[in-house]
Design goal:
- The protein is α/β, with parallel strands linked by helices.
- Helix content is 31%, strand content 24%.
- The N terminus is likely disordered.
- Bound molecules: flavin-adenine dinucleotide (FAD).
- The site of flavin-adenine dinucleotide has 40 residues, from β1, α3, α4 and β11.
């Protein structure tokens, strides 16, 4: 049902009920409106909204990841140690999945003027894997050295919304960094679009930002509007969410487990090698046989390169079984960081954002709050 049909039907019903004396007040009219508006117009999905069924006894797992955050933004730069060159690509905060291909492209540009032969990549999170793949495409022979395989990296914890958020602090990051960020976002967005589909775990989804105050656009929505479609501030009768303000966009969601596995396979198929190794300091890194070395160690860069600015931002996620009927994601609407992302194999409920917290232990009270905030939204969905 489109809006004009809904309005005509509403008028007819109100008129009929009115002539029967059944409608005597404005509040009765608005009750009727909400009944008739259950078929909300949707830009992407062709089905009605369904509410995920959230309950404590449905929790299947709870995980924690530490986002590698720098207020002045992520680091892509080349350092020279005689014949060895170290190219950094780390510190992407809460947006490393979104930025991966673009930031890694910037890192690979830093090889300009170097002979193309063997390269070492340290780290097998999303930055290490995408850097390695782009190097292979440019003709390099690549070995990834890593303490943990990608399945055990922060990247495999990431929620996976394509939205380069919580990557830097406005006013602290330089204008030059902002240019670098925008470039990386655009390249990355383009690369993900080219891989869209179940094979790489990437699909487009309606995103709903919820709030009880007017929703302030994030930096990425203000500065990169062309990367989001169907952007709109919705009126109360245009959405089912029990909050005062709703902003909608359509963007990609990337399922990290599928994506990382697929990029790892591409890396191996293209002749890449893995070596498990834990580096303890710079000398350790400089002892590698390769002269061109990429540092993609995320939070590991703090100790390895004495980066005082790099800090963890702890995030906790709660999972319940999947529900194929849920074809949208939400961000906000709770008492703290709150989101709900549907995945093929599970529903992810977030979240938290605890700065300078190095603990990798899930916290029971955070789990409780995540469940409660999401239940409040979806138990009251107007469907
Ligand atoms: C809860 C949560 C939700 C998130 N949601 C999103 C989202 O929706 N969208 C988004 O874009 N981003 C999101 N992120 C952010 C994203 O996950 C990170 O920015 C990104 O994964 C960082 O990738 P990385 O490859 O730099 O680091 P990592 O994944 O941490 O990889 C680092 C690699 O380096 C290796 N390493 C580290 N130290 C050493 C050492 N000393 N020796 C050898 N190897 C070492 C590690 O073993 C690992 O393989 C989220 C993060 C969290 C925690």
């Amino acid at each position: 049902m489109n809006n004009s049909t809904i309005n005509t039907t509403r008028r007819q019903v109100i008129k009929t009920l009115g002539s029967l004396g059944a409608v005597s007040s404005l509040s009765a009219c608005s009750d009727i409106s909400s009944i008739l508006n259950k078929n909300y117009e949707r830009p992407h999905s062709r089905t009605p909204f369904y509410a995920p069924r959230i309950a404590r006894n449905k929790i299947v797992r709870v995980i924690v990841g530490l986002r590698p955050y720098r207020p002045s933004g992520f680091v892509v730069k080349r350092e020279e140690y005689d014949e060895k060159k170290i190219i950094h690509n780390y510190g992407h905060g809460g947006g490393g999945i979104s930025l991966s291909w673009g930031s890694s492209a910037l890192a690979v540009h830093q090889t300009a003027g170097l002979p193309i032969n063997h390269a070492a990549v340290i780290g097998s999170g999303i930055m290490g894997l995408t850097t390695a793949r782009l190097l292979q495409d440019a003709g390099w022979n690549v070995t990834i050295y890593t303490r943990d395989i990608s399945r055990h990296s922060v990247s495999n914890v990431g929620a996976g919304q394509w939205a380069p958020t919580s990557v830097f602090e406005e006013g602290v990051a330089s204008k030059a960094f902002e240019q670098q960020y925008k470039y990386a976002s655009r390249i990355s967005h383009h690369a993900y679009q080219n891989l869209s589909g179940a094979n790489y775990g990437i699909r487009f989804l309606e995103n709903y930002y919820l709030g009880n105050q007017k929703i302030k656009d994030s930096y990425y929505l203000r500065e990169l509007p062309e990367l989001f479609s169907s952007v709109a501030d919705l009126q109360p009768h245009e959405h089912p969410f029990p909050v005062d303000f709703v902003k909608r966009t359509v963007t990609m969601i990337i399922e990290p487990a599928t994506f990382l596995r697929r990029v790892r396979d591409d890396f191996l198929l293209t002749g890449g090698h893995f070596k498990i190794r834990n580096f303890t300091n710079l000398d350790d890194i400089l002892s590698l046989q390769e002269n061109t070395i990429f540092n993609c160690t995320g939070l590991g860069s703090k100790a390895l390169f004495n980066d005082d600015e790099l800090t963890p931002v702890k995030g906790q996620l709660v999972f319940i079984p999947p529900d194929p009927a849920i074809d949208y994601l939400t961000v906000g609407g709770g008492s703290d960081v709150t989101y709900m992302f549907p995945r093929a194999g599970e529903i992810l409920l977030g979240g938290s954002s605890q700065k300078d917290d190095w603990s990798r232990n899930p916290e029971a009270e955070v789990t409780e709050r995540i469940i409660e905030d999401n239940k409040n939204i979806f138990d009251n969905l107007r469907v």
